[in-house]
Amino acid sequence: MNTGFLLVQFLTGLASASSLFLVAAGLTVIFGVTRVVNFAHGSLYMLGAYLGWTILRALPRDPAWFACGVVLAGLATAAIGVLIERTLLRRIYKAPELLQLLATFGVVLVVQDLVLKLWGPDDLTLSRPPWLRSFVAIAGERIPSFDIVMIGIGPLVLLALWLLFTRTRWGTMVRAATQDREMVAALGVDQRLLFTTVFALGAGLAGIGGALALPDGSANGQMDLSVITDAFVVVVVGGLGSLPGAYLASLLIGLLQAFGIVLLPKITLVLVFVVMAVVLVLRPNGLLGRKLAAPRNEAATLTLIRPAVPALRWLGLAALLLAVLAPLVVGPFLLSVLTEMLIAMLFAASLHVMMGPGGMASFGHAAWFGLGAYGAAFAVKALALPMPAALAVAPVGAAVAALLFGGFVVRLSGVYLAMLTLAFAQIVWAVMFQSVSLTGGDNGVLGIWPDGWASDPRVFYWLTLAICVAGVMLLRRALYAPFGYALRATRDSPLRAEAIGLNAGGLRLAALVLAGAAAGLAGGLTAFSKGSVFPTYISIGRSVDALLMVLLGGMQSMAGPVVGALAYTGLFDVLLLVTDLWRLVLGLAIIALVLLFPQGIAGTTYVLWLRGREA
Amino acid sequence: MTLHRRTLLASSAAALAAPAIVRAQGDVPIRIGEINSYTAVPAFTLPYRSGWQLAVEHVNAAGGVLGRKIEVVSRDDAGRPPDAIRLAGELVNDQRVDLLAGTFLSNIGLAIGDFALQNKKLFVGGEPLTDALVWDKGNRYTYRLRPSTYMQAAMLVDDAAKLQAKRWVTVAPNYEYGQSAVKWFKLLLAQKQPGVEFVAEQWPALGKIDAGATVAALAEPKPDAILNVTFGADLTNFVRQGNTRGLFEGRGVVSILTGEPEYLDPLGDETPDGWIVTGYPVAGVTDPANKAFIDAYKAKFNELPKMGSVVGYALINSIVAGIKQTGSVATEKMADGFGGTSFATPIGTASWRALDHQSTLGTYVGKTALKDGKPTMVDWRYVDGASALPPDAEVKKMRPA
After folding, report:
1. Among A493, B273, B326, B349, whose CB has the most other CB atoms within 10 angstroms?
2. Out of A124, A216, A532, whose CB is closest to B240?
3. Residue B296 and residue B262 in one domain
4. What value does the CA radius of gyration of chain B take, rounded to a whole number of Å?
């Protein structure tokens, strides 16, 4: 490799780093101040690209007008950001942590359908004027002039933000709020205005990033989700809320990507996640991050969880009876939906063990689900085991993997922990995706249908019902055993828990292994219910599904994930069947549910039920 | 409109031959259960939907098939295999469809193919390109319309060999389609042109190409020619960086699917000159079948058809012809009866192979060019799918017994 090539590849890496930084900067500022995990940041980036396309097409094509157009697109996106903040997020800042994530996911779905309706299905490109096509020759190699511009934009934006945050009163307040939100509020700073302006700034940066992607490509309907994970990785690797950290992480990822693909061309699927995993294992708060101060109002919302009241138990029993009798009444399709709901219930309940009592939110719970599914598939295909044995392999395989990996996870907390689980899930996904000879790659493993005795969908449904209900009851039992209370103690007050001799790491690891095993069992059941296993079972979308179900139901008790799983699966399955605009309707439904049930469906219902009685 | 007259004649013949069936079922339409990734891949599937809607209209206007109208019950799989399988169950059990059809993504095609085998229901795959669908994972109940990855590669290899390029590099999305395309192209080109070398390869993640770095990495070993398998948004980014950095200057480029309007149009005035591609030169074709289709399509939807539209239209025609030949919609009869049926499509007549259930539908091979500032294909020819398939003995070896 000659030096010219190395130099050009280096500069190209710097240019990609700037693009990454623009998106990540907005995300990290928003998170730092509002603590909102803004899933819709990718949607804002996409809107920036589409708005930029509409605006730039109407403007003259010289550099000055181009810059104006990009800034306009940024302002328009900022306005949309303000709209989202004022109408939606503002109402739920007091809700439990991560509920805002659910709301922003609703926004993602709504925006996807709106963009399709407004701009149509085709990729939209802008014709590049000559100045955007020009290049600079360096050591006999060409590099686009626009790349050179981009290389400059990253540090310039960093500098501008640094000046904004250190030299203005507003910036000082933002930094204070990033460090200690409650203290700033106590000192009389109008938080509402602060949050709105910060959100506008973040959204504007995303919009500018989207518009600046146009000269190199197109505005298309996939760009929201393809950018959001990378942006999160940058934010977490840099350290949450840290702008210099985000730039450093962008550089690291941009350069590793540029040189990595030369040495290992197939590393593209997994590189950013490997980087994140390594950084988080070595530096649990990211490169330049500080340990986040725990929000002060959290502990007050926690109440001692007691087993369900008798009325709720009777309700559960009645539902179970109905579920047992269902196959005698409903048709085959409804039966398949019910089977899916049961599996989703176990999957969500397993995540609840980690997220609720364990206090460990996971963005990568599909890893265990997928490992269980692949475990069952290999048991059938490679070992020729019958279905019951394969179903036993599923949770064991997932639990072993959780045990091996869990040690790294339980040392972390909050979003860092969640992102490390995501990194692990993505690595597992990439391994399954790329081991074509073993797993069939993305074409999957086919022909894993139930044994003869269970091939009747009704029999398989009853089997699923038995396994899932037993699984959920076992998980619930564990949470009301001393183990569960000890686990909650380590979540609510790590110091005091340690003082009375609890082994926090061990308890958290046990919870993770338990959750992994249950999720693996759900994965094994899915393999037989669908007859096939694909890497999509480990995809981010699957992990998000689990997260949505738990958040939708509520994290207070085991009823939450159960209700959430039933509601989300039912809603999704029905909407997919009845409307082309299912993303719009589902997104609006999620937003409505978040606003109506800020403690989750089960949580808020329980609170309302109590209100009538304790008064 | 020969197609319609023939359908009409055939259906009246069927009515004469089997009056009892007609009396029993005459007013019940034949139901085709259709599944596709409408929300996940709208750029291809929405024109595809327009295509099959037009075909259904034409078939029914001509009296349907076996004296019955046809009806398509369509579902969106959201791009997720487990949802596709649930919907297949819904179509078969609740909607009582006579057969399944559609799908875009290869993994969903394979999942529905396996569902078809398990539930003994016919599945006619429209778009999935994976070779596995009819070869190593093929089964009795699964048919596939479009030319597969192997066939696309085979159609391009003749022109690729004519480039007389010795050193090749490849760029393909990092998943099964990209991997198979590169594998077959390498294999077939090496057979045709011994001594050819592949000196570097790039595997960008689908939808996430780092185009600048990829282009530079491809240029570094100074290749003579390039095989491109990227498409969609990745292709746009790749072409723009390649143009600016001069990757394509003085080099032959062979590019799969790039001539299809859904992927060519977004390239706009950056469309490279002289890439050897498979595609659909919609603005240039003049033969009657194509003309009739394009005119009818434009009249109904007010835009030019894309490749997806052709696939959607041909899919319905291929199914209707199969049913007509079988004379029944009983699954076991159709599973055998489709074999050997020939059917008309906008781009040429094709037939279902009994051997592996692949259709012989071909595609156009030509070169990309800019005409009046618009991307188009020139020097194109239609290549029959039958000419791009391996010998029967090899196919037999690949299919499970």
Report:
1. B326
2. A216
3. no
4. 21
